[in-house]
Known about the structure:
Elements lengths: L2 H7 L2 H15 L4 H11 L5 E10 L5 E9 L2 E6 L28 H15 L7 H12 L9 H19 L3 H9 L8 E8 L12 E5 L6 H23 L19 H15 L6 E5 L6 E2 L2 E3 L12 E2 L1 H14 L2 E5 L7 H9 L4 E4 L7 H10 L4 E4 L7 H13 L3 E5 L9 H8 L3 E6 L4 H17 L14
Parallel strand pairs: 4-14, 6-10, 10-11, 11-12, 12-13, 13-14
Antiparallel strand pairs: 1-2, 2-3, 4-5, 5-6, 7-8, 8-9
Helix pairs in contact: 2-3, 4-5, 4-6, 5-6, 6-7, 7-14, 8-9, 12-13, 14-15
Amino acid sequence: MSVQEYLDKHMLSRKIEDAVNAAVRAKAPDPVLFISNHMKKSIPSVITKIKARQILDSRGIPTVEVDLYTNKGMFRAATPSGAPSEMYGAVELRDGDNGKYLGKGVSKAVKNINEKISEALTGMDPTLQSQIDHAMIDLDKTENKGDLGANAILAVSIAACKAGAAEKDVPLYKHIADLYGKPGPVLPVPAITVINGGKHAGNNLAVQEIMILPVGANTFKEAMQMASETYHHLKAVITEKHGSAGCNVGEDGGFAPNISSFTEGLDLVKEAIDRAGYNDRIKLAMDVAATDFCIGKKYDLDFKAPNKSGQNFKTGEDMIEMYNHLCTDYPVVSIEDPFDKDDWEHTKLFSSLGICQVVGGDLLMSNSKRLEKAKQDSVCNALLLKVNQIGTVTDTIEVVKMAKDANWGVVTSHRCGETEDSFIADLAVGLATGQIKAGAPCRGERLVKYNQLLRIEEELGDQAVYAGESWRSP
Length: 474
């Protein structure tokens, strides 16, 4: 084929002429660079290659990372991971080879991406998120994404979402908002972990997380300042009362003093807020993770104590009474998983009191069927949104729509096994969830989410809206 035939076949002469004319109209100081960029934008982008690998999450446990290539470049995403007992969520595919990573390797999931998913998606338009996600679901053919692995599917789904934003030349949060079909981004109120307990820390505290919500801030930037200052005042309070060893941190970056009661933890945080000067501007939240200490139909608040007296077992009614007192005595506005994952009865009873936001985490597992049941029976009033329990960006958006249709709160959440991927920050803004739970202002895999939100707010400038007092319904 001659040069002229090649030019004619691909209509290159016309495309180059259009690019030159555009450079002249724009009075481009660097015409070559302008023409190059113009030509790139004129070419519809498609997925050209997908390459996956095994990396380590924040706990040193393997997870999946993906590099997805289009004409516009390479887009990387990694899947966070949670506890292995998440029986109602999408299934992480693990190798089961105890000779490697204690059976928790993900080489099978990686192989599924490199050999099956890559072939199925190559040539697809990255802006068509729903088509990409459904192609993977059709390839998997299971209800819980257990064949290919939800960890494999999600990493590709997130990478494709990033590529779609690049193809449209818009920020990721804007692309997500477009996929959702609603106007305007909203910066969420951060639910900052300040004390860790439960299975996330080595102390005797049953509650998994005590968090602070800077609802009284005017901007996300101010919210992070308030949170950081309170966190460091808390460090000083704990050092005074429990020594420097009490300032060791748990999996989410919260301090882990050797305390054993809910009130001890809340008292420490309340004093730190007072020292920081943010009384009435910072509210409190708890992730009880009660499934971890539910035995039969009772709750063992001493489940971590080395010398248990056997006298701290609580019935569901006892727990409701305790939560009622805590919400009265402290500015607690949100409680996650106050009961076992299958204790619908007491969760519903507690929610009906209207004392605080009741968040379904282990109860719902971000599972659309369990969410629908909870909506119909008025069991709780907020969704804990964990993308790895769902498996695709498209399904995540649908679950959020279900929750918002019921006038529920939505808490975009990190996982105990986190990565350096900041995707959930853009997700929270794009879906206007109003709340994000990403851990303490400590540890890089947590801060990467908060720092991305700071960048987004700066980018939005005068158009930035912080959820603030409207954190449940921005």
